[in-house]
Design a protein that fits this description.
alpha/beta, TIM Barrel
């Protein structure tokens, strides 16, 4: 029997200037893939440079965490942007991150939308197509929500499309994420996050907020770095998965 393998990803470089939201160095000691903010919702050049260098040093895969142009809203507000403009914005972000990654001796290995854009491309064909176009032009695989229009359109375009699950976010019975402003958007504590990871790895199941069991095939598990006790929870998840015989390794 083959050993099950799972990637752990987290959003990093989510700060700007003197403001910092994530403990990048601590998370890089745990995760296998880093979704690096590219400057449009968070992330500044020096922070991006430091995270890329630290990721390469630790053997962590670098991904471009791209978003709407929304620093004030942290990329969590929908923007009704023209698809051609959105594609250009995303390519700009990938290009910036790619230079830092290559200067550190690595490269950008995949593209993942952030925040409101991530949720929009679950159903929004025009914006999903814009993100796919950016990934295609950048020559990158994509990471997104199972069942989304984004992953379907990426596969149709011939891109490598990977599905992910979320260790700390609430799910609706339809398999989408509970909006951040609604009750149940975040799992209540680290114990719940560990149990989510265990069931995903062992059974391929994620439990929705109403108790519905959602069959979920995911190459990666996302652990948000901006939640309370994020680092401690990530360490517990990694330990629990290894104890269960799961190999932690990058998906890309």
């Amino acid at each position: 029997m083959s050993t099950p393998t799972l990637d752990l990803n987290a959003d990093l470089a989510e700060g700007f200037g003197t403001w910092s939201l994530t403990d990048d160095d601590a998370l890089l000691d745990v995760i296998t893939s880093a979704n690096v903010a590219c400057g449009f919702h968070a992330g500044d050049p020096l922070r991006m440079q430091r995270v890329c260098a630290a990721a390469v040093e630790r053997g962590v895969t670098i991904g471009a965490q791209v978003s709407y142009r929304d620093l004030a809203g942290f990329g969590r507000r929908f923007v009704d942007v023209d698809p051609a403009e959105l594609t250009a914005d995303l390519l700009y972000q990938v290009g910036a991150l790619r230079e830092f990654a290559r200067a550190a001796g690595g490269d950008v290995a995949y593209l993942k939308p952030h925040g409101a854009l991530y949720n929009a491309v679950v159903h929004h064909d025009a914006q999903a197509g814009a993100v796919v176009a950016a990934a295609d032009r950048a020559g990158l695989p994509v990471l997104g929500l199972p069942g989304s229009r984004f992953l379907a359109m990426a596969a149709e375009a011939g891109l490598v499309a990977h599905a992910e699950a979320f260790g700390d976010r609430g799910y609706t019975r339809e398999g989408t994420l509970v909006p951040r402003r609604e009750p149940g958007a975040l799992l209540p504590d680290a114990d719940a996050v560990v149990e989510r990871a265990r069931r995903l790895a062992a059974e391929g199941v994620v439990v929705a907020v109403d108790g519905t069991e959602l069959p979920t095939r995911a190459a990666s598990l996302c652990l948000h770095g901006d939640t309370p006790d994020a680092v401690a929870a990530a360490r517990r998840v990694a330990e629990a998965l290894r104890d269960a015989g799961v190999t932690l390794a990058p998906f890309a």
